[in-house]
Fold these 2 entries.
Entry 1:
Amino acid sequence: MEEILKVAMPKGRIYKQAAKLLLKAGLPIPEDLEEGRRLIIPVPEAKMEFILAKPVDVPTYVEYGVADIGVVGKDVLMEENRNVYELLDLGIARCRMSVIGLPDWKPSIHPRVATKYPNVASQFFKEQGQQVEVIKLNGSIELAPLIGLADRIVDMVETGQTLKENGLVEQEEIFQITSRLIANRVSYRMKNAQIQQLCDLLQPVLPVQAAQV
Ligand SMILES: Nc1ncnc2c1ncn2[C@@H]1O[C@H](COP(=O)(O)OP(=O)(O)OP(=O)(O)O)[C@@H](O)[C@H]1O
Ligand SMILES: O=P(O)(O)OC[C@H]1O[C@H](OP(=O)(O)OP(=O)(O)O)[C@H](O)[C@@H]1O
């Protein structure tokens, strides 16, 4: 008998896009989350249960096996480095991670970089042979160079609107980001038929540029 697949889903901007994809794949899941604070949403018609999580926590739930699979941005996967399988590039929530600064930025003796992604940023500047102090922030990262907390930031760019409105420029793209389907290593074996079936349903409805990982 098929069991319920526990799915860690981010609450924010990814949910709607992921839900659209799952609906296209023929799974009868809610397109919108109702207003409310319910964090566990059973979807028995799809043999699923959604665990609504903060995006950065999705790989943690999946690594510990309290969720069998999850949907998460590549940015979070790179930063968190959790022991999970990456099954599919879903091609949604497309954006890029970039180094950003003021237009008149010049190298300084003690450069500081503010970011939500300290591991990714440290690794990037290390590979570039640049010594920088990385300062962790949790949001509104674009503030940092405007008010003098840091010379530059490492952050997400999608439309470029936030940069434009704050007079900042993109100096260098670090990598492209899309959301991924991830799986717990044990669940992938124990619930393989179910997980594989889900991947097979998703594969034909993925946006064109998404590829199997
Ligand atoms: N501007 C953007 N456009 C498209 N995708 C984005 C953008 N910013 C972030 N993302 C992707 O969406 C994911 C979730 O971002 P979101 O803004 O919903 O959550 P968060 O700000 O990390 O968390 P929360 O607001 O719940 O604390 C990111 O990890 C990234 O993969
Ligand atoms: O290029 P754009 O389309 O303007 O998108 C980029 C913005 O989106 C994200 O912020 P988010 O909305 O998640 O807010 P926060 O991180 O500041 O909380 C990201 O951190 C940028 O600030």
Entry 2:
Amino acid sequence: MINKETLLDNIEKNLNDIRDKNALTHCITNSVTINDCANAVLAIGGSPFMAEDAEELEEVVTIADVVVINIGKLSKSQIESMKISAKKANETSTPIVLDPVGVGVTNLRNRTTMDLIENYDIAAIRGNITEIKAIAKLSGVLDESNTAKGVDVNADDIITEENLKDNAYLIKELASRLNTTILASGPIDILTDGETVISIDNGDDMMPLITGSGCMLSSIVGSCIAGSNPLEGSLIAILAMNLAGEKARAKVDERDEGTGSFRAYLIDYLYRTEAERLVNESNIEIL
Ligand SMILES: Nc1ncnc2c1ncn2[C@@H]1O[C@H](COP(=O)(O)OP(=O)(O)OP(=O)(O)O)[C@@H](O)[C@H]1O
Ligand SMILES: Cc1ncsc1CCO
Ligand SMILES: [Mg+2]
């Protein structure tokens, strides 16, 4: 288990390594937020590559440093592409990040998520807390879970100070069972590799009011874990995203602007990520 001091001490080196690596981040993702994901990857220091035709995927994964699979807007051909990429990624020891958008809502999303989790090594799963609880239920770690209205979190699931410990325990158990790293997002985020559990209390309540802050986060988790390890790479990604959200909110308030400008500022401040701010302005605890 790693302690808080070491995590903070490593941030500057990890962020430098992520930028030096400039990870080729292969994303199979939804068409709603695909452009934001590509820009977020560029802003954190990765190199995005959005490819999904089956014919080229083995070649793409062969050169990729990481594969990000987002199930936000599935089609039959896209599901086939996800499996081809996942298989090749495991053969080439390329890490896979899964964003299980809307799992729990439809059978197709449940089947696709569990097929990927059960048949391939997944380095990290990043979802909102309702999605993570849906996976816990499908995996037999949780008896009952709320159903999301769509791709957004169910209000009853939101991680608060009061339910933090229970959620942390559940997600740790799930990460350990699935042998992966899990980042569950919300007002407070929980990150665990099944051993160390970290809570992150940063970000802004305007973040869920734009579509894609979660998809962007999953994409940059990809670039960051390719240049670091899953736990510490995911920590850099969530801190960079949340602190960018805080700065973007301050900016729109100062200028009497709204969520459209917030979305643009979020990318601006991801680009402006500084190790010193990640260390000094982060609000993390080891649970
Ligand atoms: N109320 C909030 N306060 C502070 N930060 C938040 C809040 N809600 C979400 N966030 C942050 O927003 C980012 C995205 O998390 P969220 O849980 O909204 O993802 P999501 O539901 O998968 O989003 P999407 O599917 O629209 O891309 C994370 O960095 C998270 O910490
Ligand atoms: C709104 C929406 N619908 C399918 S994917 C997506 C992006 C947020 O997950
Ligand atoms: Mg999402």
